Every structure is written in structure tokens, then in C-alpha cells.
Amino acid sequence: xxxxxxxxxxxxxxxxxxxxxxxxxxxxxxxxxxxxxxxxxxxxxxxxxxxxxxxxxxxxxxxxxxxxxxxxxxxxxxxxxxxxxxxxxxxxxxxxxxxxxxxxxxxxxxxxxxxxxxxxxxxxxxxxxxxxxxxxxxxxxxxxxxxxxxxxxxxxxxxxxxxxxxxxxxxxxxxxxxxxxxxxxxxxxxxxxxxxxxxx
Length: 200
Prior knowledge:
elongated; Alpha-Beta Plaits; three-stranded antiparallel β-sheet; disordered C terminus; 5 strands
């Protein structure tokens, strides 16, 4: 019967560790020498040589990120500045980490049923899966701010409030959807308005 790799007994040379340490140092030295040669040849004008590995000097040098990267959340606004969220609780329900907390209230516009009075996201629990973005029927919550370097000294500092979510803007590389630029008449704009009862 074949023994799985994780349960395989170590040889004598693996048990004394020194050969394995030198083997690891040899691999590191090989990468260093190969990258140094590649960088030197490219500096001398040999452009057909593959590029060597480059270390980004963070935070002075920011690594380019993919446009599909899920970063810190934001709530989209309507053209009049109000949040697009209608407090349907879909994102709170679908969240596997249970990090979204919403309190709904009545919206002054009769065409819009509800509005979030409180909308909190606990970034300390969030796993950035993007389920909330996919579940939202109003396209109100998005993860396109480009902000991924955030920290806090307390757990309470990791909680994003409604005001903070509305204050975030999309990253420069994100194209803003047209529905955020044009006036938004609301969800019941296509239906016929209810006529007022005739006075007697």
C-alpha cells in the first residue's frame, strides 16, 4: 500500500535538517542570481531577455490592481443624492459572514417603499466574497472604491456606517453606470400615476 506524502517517514538527512536548510538557501541564491543577471542584461540594452522579478516598495509604490478586484464597499446614490438602497435586506440575508446590519424606515417618496435608516458593514468580519453586490436588486451596493489598505485600532473602528458608505466614491478606473448620471425617476416611474379622487 502506498503511503500518502503527508505520512511518509523522513529520511536520516531530512531529520537532521541541515541539508534541507542549505537546499533552501541554494534555491533562494539561484533566484537572486538569475534575477540579477536579467536586470543587468536589460540595463545593457538586451530587450529580448525576460524581465526579472521586481519588488514593489509599498507604500511609496502602489502595485497596480485588477479592475475586477473587490475592494471596500460603497453605497450608490440616485441623481438627487439619496441612496439607491431600498432596505430590502437581500444583502444582509445572503451575507455568509453576517457582517451587514440594516434598519429600514419609511421613504418620504411614495414611489419608494423603504430607505435604510442604519446600514452597517463590519469589515472585521467581512470576507469580501461579493455576494451582497450580486444579490442587490437595485445595484445599490458596490465594491469598486479601490480602497484595500484599511486598518483600525479597535473593532468598532472597522464598522462602516451609512454615512461612510455614501461618502465613498468609485475608483478612477471604474466607469460609472449611466443610471447614476441620469435623473432617476424611481422604481414605479413606468406605471401610471394614481389619480387623486375627485372632490364632490
